[in-house]
Specification:
The chain is of the alpha+beta class. Helix content is 25%, strand content 15%. It has a domain at 40-138. It comes from Roseomonas acroporae.
Length: 146
C-alpha cells in the first residue's frame, strides 16, 4: 500500500529513531538497499498534523517486533521515504527524494538523510528488503518473502 501525496519535508531530516535508541552512524557512500513496505504494513496519512501513521502487524517470528503489532508516527521525511519505496529501484527512490526536498540539497546530504531514514524504517519493521536480498551495512536486518 502506498501513502498518497506525502508532504514535502521542510528543513532538516530527522526520521523517527528505531526502538532502542539513536540510529547507528551513517556507513557512508554505497549502494542503497532495495526496500519495499513490509507485509501487512498499513499507512494512514494525517496531513493536517503533517504525519503518517504506520501500522506494523508484528508477524510471528519477527525479531524486531517479537510478534507484537505496533503503531508508529512517521514524520514527513519518513513518510516520504515509505511512500517512495513502492517497488521502484533504489536509484529512482534517491532521485525522487532529492527532488522532493524544498531547498536544493547537495547529493551527500540527501543521500545521508535517505540512508538514515531507510535504516530507521527497516529497524521498526515498516520496510523490508525486496526479495530477501543481502541488506548490507545500511539495513539492520534481512527479511524473506512471506
Amino acid at each position: 500500500m502506498r501513502a498518497a501525496d506525502p508532504p514535502r519535508p521542510g528543513g532538516g531530516v530527522r526520521p523517527a529513531c528505531p526502538a532502542g535508541g539513536a540510529p547507528p552512524p551513517d556507513p557512508g557512500a554505497g549502494a542503497l538497499p532495495d526496500c519495499v513496505l513490509a507485509p501487512g504494513v498499513r499507512l494512514r496519512p494525517v496531513p493536517e498534523l503533517s504525519t503518517c501513521l504506520a501500522y506494523v502487524p508484528g508477524l510471528p517470528g519477527d525479531g524486531a517486533g517479537g510478534g507484537r503489532p505496533a503503531l508508529h508516527r512517521l514524520n514527513v521525511s519518513s513518510w516520504l521515504i515509505a511512500a517512495l519505496c513502492d517497488g521502484r529501484p533504489p536509484e529512482a527512490v534517491a532521485d525522487a527524494f532529492a527532488r522532493a526536498r524544498p531547498a536544493p540539497a547537495d547529493a551527500v546530504t540527501s543521500g545521508t538523510d535517505l540512508r538514515e531514514g531507510l535504516r530507521n524504517l527497516l529497524a521498526i519493521g515498516v520496510l523490508r528488503t525486496r526479495h530477501g536480498d543481502s541488506p548490507g551495512p545500511d539495513c539492520p536486518r534481512k527479511e524473506t518473502e512471506p
